[in-house]
Amino acid sequence: MEKKVTMQDIADRLNISKNSVSQALSGKPGVSEDTRRLVQTTADELGYSYSNSRNQKQVEKKTLKNIALIASDYAFSLKSFFGEIYLSVEKELRARGMNLFIESIDSEAINNLTLPSLLINHEIDGILILSHISTDYISTIINTGIPTVLIDHHEPHLEADSILTNNRFGAYTAVEHLIQLGHREIAFVGNVDISPSYQERLEGYLLALKRYGISPNEDFILTNTQENQHDINLFLNGLQDMPSAWFCVNDGKGFLVTSILQQRGFKVPEDASVCSFDNGQLSQIATPTITTMDIDLNYYGKKAVEQLCWRMENKEEPFQEILLPTKLIIRESTAKKKQ
Q: Which residues, including other chains, have CB under 8 Å from residue 22's CB and lie 6 or more apart?
């Protein structure tokens, strides 16, 4: 009876390891294309039956997960923030040997609740939704039954896992920093209707004031400003008293407030301290550089992929909201209040 050819026989013939032969025949990474071809040629010459390896390859192909990353055109345009999360997601999925499909959703698709064709035409195993699209649209995606994780967004009616910044505690820390510098007249600048994150940052601002026995001054709270000079100038024009410090919900507004105060002859931080949120590029290039709350965007993407992989294996478990910490970065724009 003819002896059955084994992988070890091929390895001995080519003077390479059995593991390299296995990688070459199964299509796994770890060997060069030249080695892969040489192993396959030698296997054929020796009469090795590698149907098992082919079967293994088919199984691997079948179990390779396809993940969709979905966001609005607007979210994808915010490259400094969401771009970094996207790169982190891509890197983490690649490390796990998963395929990534990206879909940008325009306003027409949102209004018509038109789902991306990839959810229908491809076998998608899991979905990551970056930021807010619309509650109805996200609900339509969740209703496909495909495991879904929301990144930097949540809403009471959305039944899905969420990876979130701890916005309340982050804002609390920022405002506490200003209070500890002696400031009690602290303004809030943001648009709380754009995102739950900004509403939560307002709540953190109010929590810090309450904890330190400071009554909120309604005149100092601007909750519907767009990211433009006009709104902030109007707000300043309506003030009878001047805040000694400003907490802004993001770096864009922190940059604007700093610039407008300087245009009006105020020195930052000598006359007014400014603190913002996100640690984006604007906080780093401003003059003076702006104290801000840092978010680890790389960890954001990693945690989102980790949670989605867990959810795909645990579809019946209760939904979770995972809060990621922030870190205060003290720069030049905050200082002790002048006595």
A: 7, 28, 53
Give the residue from 282, 267, 254, 286 showing the smallest Cα distance to 338. 267
* 204 plus 119 within the same structural domain: no
pTM: 0.78
> Quick one: 90 and 184 in the same domain?
no
Q: How far is CA 70 from CA 67, 162, 225, 255, 313, in A?
A: 10, 14, 28, 29, 21
Q: What is the domain-level CATH number for residue 11?
A: 1.10.260
Q: In the block, which residue shows the tokens 């000079």?
A: 229
CATH of the domain at 278: 3.40.50.2300
Q: Does some domain include residue 301?
A: yes
Is 140 within a domain? yes
- Output the pLDDT for position 142: 96
Do strands 326-329 and 221-222 pair parallel, antiparallel, or not at all (unpaired)?
A: unpaired
28: which residues sit within 8 A by CB, 6+ positions away?
A: 22, 60
pLDDT, one tens digit per residue, over 147-179 is 999 999 999 999 999 999 999 999 999 999 999
Count up the domains in the chain and report the number.
3
8 Å CB contact between 80 and 280 = yes
Burial class (CB in 10 A: 0-12, 13-18, 19+), 217: middle
CA distance 143 to 159: 9
Query: What range does the domain containing 150 cover?
Result: 66-165+297-324
What are the pLDDT digits (tens) for 189-221? Answer: 999 998 899 999 999 999 999 999 999 999 999
**Other C-beta atoms lying within 10 Å of the C-beta of residue 212:** 12
Do the Cβ atoms of 103 and 125 come closer than 8 Å? Answer: no
CA pair distance 183, 153, nearest whole angstrom: 32
